[in-house]
Structure formats: structure tokens, C-alpha cells
Amino acid sequence: SYVLTQPPSVSVAPGKTATITCGGNNIGSKSVHWYQQRPGQAPVLVIYYDGARPSGIPERFSASNSGNTATLTISRVEAGDEADYFCQLWDSSSHYVFGTGTTVTVL
Amino acid sequence: QVQLVESGGASVKPGGSLRLSCAASGFTLSDSYMTWVRQAPGKGLEWVSDINSRGGRTSYADSVKGRFTISRDNVRNSLHLQLTRLRAEDTAVYYCAREIAGYSSSGHETRYFDQWGQGTLVTVSS
Questions:
Q1: What mean pLDDT is predicted for residues B53-78?
Q2: What is the pLDDT of residues A19-60, one digit of tens each?
Q3: Which residues of A touch B109 (CB under 8 A)?
Q4: CB of A38 less than 8 A from some CB of B
Q5: Can you give chain A as a three-state secondary structure string?
Q6: Inter-chain touch B45–A90, beta carbons under 8 Å
Q7: Are residues B113 and A45, on separate chains, in Cβ contact within 8 Å?
């Protein structure tokens, strides 16, 4: 089955940029979505279709997808961005696949 | 606004059964595919099952196939998940979510979850 690998943790200072990767075999040929999950809360969609943002999600959140890596970038990081982040894709054989998750810590 | 509220979570013994429900409001449930995703304590997200808008097509993760059954009642705006032959590894928070199917700008068919409930906890322990 298809596997999506994320770094377990990323630490970033306030105001700096956090970069979270999601690795998978030829992931650039698929569409990747990203979710934010704050402690004790349900996941929230922050990026869909590789780079689109739902209404209410700040422009500080952006994403890209190419080759074997999809990337979520959080610019000008704030304390409220501290959360777990999961990538996700769908394909006809593996159905729904979530990444292993990355904990973002704001220093 | 869109709201999904799960209920039915409980503590049960291995081999037991449980029925989870998800009450939907703020959108037309009958237009939407719906899904269940679970999260074991301290772990990541795992897709469990989904159902098309009319309830005629269902899919399951291999880990629950044959034990869980998804259903929906579009008249009562509700989604359900019947859990049977429960195992310790089924312990998790179960989320219902609205599923969106479509194509990215590069033409890739895909699905994602745009609205989530707050979750209901299922604990399987002797």
C-alpha cells in the first residue's frame, strides 16, 4: 500500500518559516491535501488540491507538490500554529492515505 | 454553518459491539459523500470507511472490513457506523467528516475531507 512519510517534528521560532515535507513514491502525480490538528481538537483542512486554501485559512499557509515530495510551508509562524500536521491523498488502489504526521513546535 | 456532531462512543469489552452516530446540519447531507476517520491515542489519522451520497456504495479499510458497517439516513440527516467484534486495536477517537471528490487543476482525481466533527471516543478493553 502507498506510504506517506513525514518528519516527526519541526521546531520554528515565531515569525520564521516552517517547512513540512510529505514523501511518497511519485507523489507529484497525485493531489495532496493538508490538515492541521491542534491539541485536543479535530483536524482542520488547511490546504486542498496541492495548494488551494479554504476560506478562513491565512495566506501564510502555502503548499507545493513535485517529484517524490509534497511540502507545506507556514510563513511568519505564530504561536497558534503549534499543532500536528497531516498530509493526505487518495488514489483508486490505496483509497485514502494519511501521512505519519508532523508536530510543529513554536519556540 | 456546517456542523457534525458524533455520539455513541463508550467503553466496551473485546468482542463487543457499538453504534456510532453523526448528526449533520448546515448543509444538505443527501448531496454529500461522508466518511469515518479514527485516531488511536497519540497516533495518526486512519481512514475507516466511506459512503456515497445515496448510500448505495460503501468502502472499508482492510482493518475493519467484515466487522464495521457504515450507513446513512438522509431524511434524519445522520450517518452511522456499526462496530462489531471489537478489538483492543479499535480503541480510538472516531471522527465523521464530509468528503469532497473532484479533480485538481492538473487533472488528478482526488478526495479530501473539508468538515470534521469533534469526535467520539471508543475504548475496547477487558
A1: 94
A2: 999 999 999 999 999 999 999 999 999 999 989 999 999 999
A3: 31, 90, 92
A4: no
A5: CCCCECCCEEEECCCCCEEEEEECCCHHHCCEEEEEECCCCCCEEEEECCCECCCCCCCCEEEEEECCEEEEEECCCCHHHCEEEEEEEEECCCEEEECCCEEEEEC
A6: no
A7: yes
